[in-house]
């Protein structure tokens, strides 16, 4: 089935998968420490067949994080929401995309290559306005 689950976290106090909502993970972490969370995104093969070449172009998923101030004696207070778009690829589609991208980049001038975004080992989330209460 489609959904996400957390594999493990670094500097997290607890990581639990929501049994009622497969698209939700609950994480308690200490904001005084830099934390990381490793997730898996599960997709059905039908997610890739809706569009032509979606295995190579990827299927976009919005990953959003709602942050709350968690206190055991009081209800949690909403703080902010951040998000990013993830592109999920089928294995062969990802290999083909990487090969095609490498070929296209090799044809660019040094000036054009300088305008490309640098690769990153982490996903950066940007603040967004939350539209509804979860």
Keywords:
134 residues, alpha+beta, three-stranded antiparallel β-sheet, two-stranded antiparallel ribbon, 4 helices, 7 strands, globular
Structure description:
By secondary structure, the protein is of the alpha+beta class. The protein is built from four helices and seven strands. The chain has helices spanning 46-49, 54-57, 91-106, 110-114, and strands at 3-10, 12-17, 25-29, 36-42, 59-69, 77-88, 126-128. The strands form three sheets. Strands 5-6-7 form a three-stranded antiparallel beta sheet. A hairpin with a 7-residue loop joins strand 2 and strand 3. The chain is globular and about 60 Å long. It starts with a strand and ends in a 6-residue tail after the last strand.
Quick structural summary:
The protein is an alpha+beta fold and 134 residues long. The chain has helices at residues 46-49, 54-57, 91-106, 110-114, and strands at 3-10, 12-17, 25-29, 36-42, 59-69, 77-88, 126-128. It is globular, with a radius of gyration of 18 Å.
Shape: globular
Side-by-side strand order of the widest sheet: 5-6-7
Order of secondary-structure elements: EEEEHHEEHHE
- Averaging pLDDT over every residue, what do you get? 76
